[in-house]
């Protein structure tokens, strides 16, 4: 697997369009593109934005190598003048985005590029790829962690991830969204996040007996001794052998810390309750019972409802692929062009009404209830609108405009959700440590009402348009018909 | 995004087990691990194996850097003696696998590692990650291509893929499975596969009018001029404007080759039929109608049943994520240990009967009907069993042993499906070009009966155990009870 420069990680049509813009002397025309998405994954009422650090790294390192240019020249599509443009290509624009780990909602601009059209177009595909992927997994992790309540969730999905990056950046996103650690050693190294794991069935099978295997493991790792008990027969062999080994450790005077068993097959509710009784009777009331086996937020909820005695959840396939909703449908749409004096709003009309975009250069504001700190609504406004928390604020639903919310002065706070990432091509964003992003995400999740965190059919959070933006949109729709 | 060395792309427990094996003087014990899977994706009767080239590259480049060792030392789990083992780590074993692009079936060993246990264990996670991902996407692509019949299928999913690698290696796998090209430029460069694409809605929106945008595009790209017609109104604006531009090209005497329109929203059956009439009436009977919009094998089948006039299909999200079945559940299980004289069979018993593994060092044979060249069955045998096409062959179903198939001498051929990839740590496999693998895959698919290629509820292909392997398995089960 070669070392990868991601400059060519783009759709071919970005390059054919770029050459067309150059040919028509439009390459330097400044435009505004928004990234937004239309539906939250898995029926959630919110998503967690993630991937900004990798987007910033990608843009900072954009360079067409001579090797890239030789390849492009071989395609018999591009002229020398365009290859020269690529040879000198640097991102010179602005990029704004919500901080990583933020709670976000459909249709709002979670990232905005203001740049010459050639640059804005080239970066579309990689931005979408990176943010779509990490936001998907971070959102799924937040759901799994919500189901697990106070229990630890471990990310165990590398072997089922859609390629190496899906495992690596998926582990990062899973930790941001709520996982306590990952099994992925490379992700642990790259992002300084905790790694965990003990042993597999092959360990047990490579010894003459399960008891020998458990003894050997405990001998090597008296701390953090979690024994996998389902290789042969969980209740008749695995748990009794584990208890025998714990007895031997106790007899040797070893302190039993972070020890216990892992279940990886069979009925986890039944087996965990039976195993709990056996462990408790043997005096191991603090032994951990961890489980892994096709877990997701729904099965964890159901197992807890049935009284399963599991306090640590290893979640693999269903988290790392977001199995029930494996694509975050983020899109990147032209919103405005700059004519030298002002932004001319642009809008895509669609046969599907929910696909009509929001025109203009915009800002994203979040309105909090001052007393509780919970989110009242998000407000998409034009970039030059001003708001004042000392004045009353009226919000209305852009589809059902009779639905209105009146906020009295000083009862709410307004937050500008966009932070600058690039200004005039210079990176001005320094990514926080992944663990810091994780803690920020926890605080973000606390700004949602529990009604909006419910896994099934949660309460929608309002995303409103400002009056000027709403009027602009209606005006443009009217003129197009 | 840093350049990646994948040596640490493994689960933490592989390293804790490796240290354990070293501690217990078992590090050099030679073992046999099989990779196999239990269910085909998306209800298919078969899968396409893919990813072997990347597995071989990964194993060939396995080296723990000092940076890796410093990181591992920081985890307070590993001793200096073990870090020394890693410092000198090289893969010294054998690896066999079915060639990339092969048709494969559940429960058969599609890859086999024979190596010292420490080595065999370390490589488990990355092997599974790579083969699971690429086999998943190649299989999905074969299904989509089957639905599209003689039409071209283009892979357009990069922006929705689960991270950069999912887009890059997913494009490779999609081409192996049946796609004619990809939009992914980096994949095009890396694997020498065709890239395609024309323009997006933003191209149209950045010009004063749709007609201006189409003219500008046609001016630049008179060859391969595929115009996206749904930015404003497909039938009232897009198609008429496209026809006007084709008229202008014709008036200029330009040869119209590989030209036409692309539909990206709305009802594709209705719009394509209406557009076909408009194009035909204007004299553009050879204009291509391509479509993209949430396509998969089921929708393509249904659109064709409704007489949609589409002959080129751009497939994105549903292919690159295998949306309805986003994880290929390949596993990697210990099958035997070598005691210096012979292979001792190993087997994992499970509470789930279909999870009981096949013990022993095995070979994978494929039985073809000599006359038709179609697959009769696959046969999993022990490595030292000999077969002779000049003798009668009796096959039986390992679950329903009364189901037997008798093959007369010289009516069948036997193929050994495993090719050597590493021998004594030396790579002996040179990967064919991706396009060659694609052509091999086409020939492989032709060895299936149409009844087994059907998208819904296809006929199962038999995977049988040899008599000696069956008896060994029953014997081991009997001894464990």
Q: Could you characterize the architecture of this molecule?
A:
2 copies of one chain form a homodimer. With 481 residues, chain A is an alpha/beta fold. Chain A has 2 domains: 6-137 and 326-480, Alpha-Beta Barrel (nicotinate phosphoribosyltransferase), CATH 3.20.140.10; 139-320, Alpha-Beta Barrel (TIM Barrel). In chain A, 37% of the residues lie in helices and 20% in strands. The first copy, chain A, has helices spanning 12-23, 52-60, 66-73, 80-87, 117-122, 124-148, 164-177, 185-191, 201-205, 210-220, 234-251, 268-281, 297-305, 317-320, 434-445, 450-453, 467-480; strands spanning 30-36, 47-48, 94-97, 103-104, 111-116, 152-155, 181-182, 226-228, 260-263, 288-292, 312-315, 331-338, 343-345, 362-369, 375-382, 393-396, 404-407, 412-416, 419-423, 426-427, 462-465. In chain A, the strands form 5 sheets. Chain A has a 7-stranded antiparallel sheet. A 6-stranded parallel sheet of chain A has the order 7-6-11-10-9-8. In chain A, helix 7 (164-177) packs across helix 8 and helix 11 (234-251) packs parallel to helix 12. The longest helix of chain A has 25 residues, at 124-148. The model of chain A has no long low-confidence stretch (mean pLDDT 95). Chains A, B: This is Nicotinate phosphoribosyltransferase. Chains A, B: It holds the Pfam family NAPRTase_N. Chains A, B: Pathway: Cofactor biosynthesis; NAD(+) biosynthesis; nicotinate D-ribonucleotide from nicotinate: step 1/1. Chains A, B: Belongs to the NAPRTase family.
